[in-house]
Each structure stands twice: as C-alpha cells, then as structure tokens.
Design brief:
The protein is an alpha/beta fold and 230 residues long. The chain contains eight helices and twelve strands. A five-stranded parallel sheet has the order 2-1-3-4-5, with helices on both faces. It has a four-stranded antiparallel sheet with strand order 6-7-8-9, covered by helices on one side. Strand 7 and strand 8 form a beta hairpin. Helix 6 crosses helix 8. The protein starts with 6 loop residues before the first strand and ends in a 5-residue tail after the last strand. 31% of the residues are buried.
Length: 230
C-alpha cells in the first residue's frame, strides 16, 4: 500500500506561478490542489480539508487577511502567506488574523519547504511539559529554563514571553499578538516595551546577543524563536 502524501491547498491568481509552484510541491512529495480565488479555496477546503494552505496575500475576490480570518472561523489548518515586497501592513494584518508564516516573492522552493515542515511540526499535538529547541530547555511544569546545561533565571514576564515563543517555535508572532498575549490588551501597541524584554531575554539566552541564534527579529513584523541546529 502506498503511503498517503500530505495534502496542500495552494491559492494564487497567477496561473503560471500557480502551475510552477504546484509542480515543485508535487515533486517534493505533496499532494496538491489549487485554487485561483478565495471563494474557490473555501469551497475546496470545506469539501476536503488540507493539511496546510499556501495563500497569496492579494486575490481577486478578497484579501488574504479576509480569507485567513474566514478559515480560522472553523479550521486550525496551518496557513503560509505568499507576499510581494511592500505588502508589510497587509502581511501583519493576516498574521494577526491567524496566518502562521510567510514567504516573500521571489523565493526558493527550499525556503518554502522548510516553512512547511515547521508548521507541520507545530500542528502535531504534544503532551510534554518540556519544550526543547536546540540547546534551550523550557520546563513548563517547574517554570525553569536551561541553555547549554546552564540554568537561567527569568522574571515572570520574561518566562511568559519565552514560553509563548517556544510554544510557537518557528512561527512569526507579531508585536501586537505578543503584547496582547503576555501583557494584555492595554499593551498591544507598546512595541518599544516589547523590544526591551526581547533584549533582556537575548542577553540571558544567546551566546552573542548582538547575533541572536534563537530569537529572530522579523523587521517591522515581530519575532520568531527558531532551532539554530536545524
């Protein structure tokens, strides 16, 4: 019996780009279904749920942000945005609406495949209270942190910030989303406040805080925590 291949839904209104991307993804071992509009994507996703959606930010019948929000109304399927340079505000809005990641055109297929593997890992449920990312260990039960075997003392807010990033390993979290989750609604526009805490975390966790390996800045968007060994 042949092994079932992960199924993707790819949504883009440029026929040539859509065909090329679908061909590359099939070559990488995925089953691919395509759609050229948001309405077609919603119909196909409802008919047969994909394991991930690759979604262009700008579609003829509605924005990628609106489509992401509609998907999030009934599905937790991972969503990766495809954006062009200069679409930062729309990209941030889509991430705040629930998208998991993005790639910017033009991109290498290897970059997209790496992002797909990351969202697939996050989609797998884990019951373990211990989060391990490279040499970083975050024990949610005891609220303790070690890096390279060294114990790290964190304040309650620093731990809450690291926990949020670690539970979403590889995912871009916008400034607004992080501030809302860690500090509450009243702080969701205080990006300077967040910058201070990220700097403190880097000083405690990174071998070289000026060249961070774990907590990565996504300019004008937010932060993500990655495994530097992958």
């Amino acid at each position: 019996m042949s092994e079932l291949r992960p199924r993707l839904l790819v949504v883009d209104d440029e026929p040539q780009f859509l065909r090329a991307l679908a061909t590359n993804l099939r070559g990488a071992g995925y089953e691919v279904e395509t759609a050229s509009s948001a309405e077609e994507a919603l119909q196909k996703a409802r008919l047969r749920a994909p394991e991930a959606v690759i979604l262009d930010l700008l579609l003829p019948d509605r924005s990628g942000t609106e489509l992401t929000r509609e998907l999030r109304g009934w599905s937790d399927v991972p969503v990766i945005l495809v954006s062009a340079v200069g679409e930062e505000s729309e990209k941030i809005a889509a991430l705040d609406a629930g998208a998991d990641d993005y790639v910017t055109k033009p991109f290498a297929i290897g970059e997209l495949l790496a992002r797909l593997r990351a969202v697939e890992r996050r989609a797998r449920p884990s019951q373990s209270p211990l989060l391990e990312i490279g040499e970083l260990r975050v024990d949610l039960a005891s609220r303790t942190v070690t890096v390279s075997g060294r114990s790290v003392h964190l304040t309650p807010h620093e731990f809450a910030l690291l926990r949020l990033l670690a539970e979403n390993e590889g995912k871009i979290l916008t400034h607004k989303a992080i501030l809302r989750e860690v500090w509450g609604l009243a702080y969701q526009t205080e990006s300077g406040y967040l910058h201070v805490y990220v700097s403190q975390l880097r000083r405690k966790l990174e071998p070289d805080p000026e060249r961070p390996r774990y907590i990565i800045t996504e300019p004008r968007v937010g932060y993500r925590l990655i495994d530097p060994t992958r």
